[in-house]
Amino acid sequence: MKIRMLVILSMSLLLFSSCSKELANYSYYKNLPEVSGTTRDDPPLFYIIKVDLGYDWGDKKTQYSLADLTPVISDGMRNLFSSKSEFDYTIEQEEQLKQEIMDMVNSTIHRYESFKKVPGIKTVAIVKKQVFEFR
Q1: Sorted alphabetically, which keywords does the UniProt record give (predicted)?
Q2: What angle do the packed helices 94-110 and 60-68 form, to 10 degrees?
Q3: pLDDT by residue (tens digit) across 17-34?
Q4: pTM: predicted TM-score of the whole model, two decimal places
Q5: What's the number of CA atoms in the CB half-sphere (13 Å) around residue 111?
Q6: Residue 74: which residues within 8 A CB-CB, separation 6 or more?
Q7: Contact, 13 vs 57, CB < 8 A?
Q8: Measuring CA to CA, how many Å separate 46 from each of 33, 73, 87, 132?
């Protein structure tokens, strides 16, 4: 019984340490507001989405660029999300949506001369995603 508990505990610690090591590689910019709007479906559906943007741990250039460009990035996300249909918000399409968000954010950052050499974001966390009929 003691050996089995030790094996389970060891495996749990190993799993936890590998997960926390992965998470420790990124800082997350969490100051973007929720974005809401309607999809391109007929009839349109209403969406509310909140994302956090991951960048390399200690990358102050990306952090500052995200803070400076928050209104522009929020507008870009609203445009991106409004161009989507209900299908694009399914769990099967989530990785594609994250990639599109990452591409849009990085192209927005690099559009400005003062941010041309900023590394940009490396990952996207969708922390809230609601798509529903509005009645």
Answers
A1: Signal
A2: 90
A3: 434 445 569 999 999 999
A4: 0.81
A5: 12
A6: 32, 33, 35
A7: no
A8: 16, 20, 13, 5
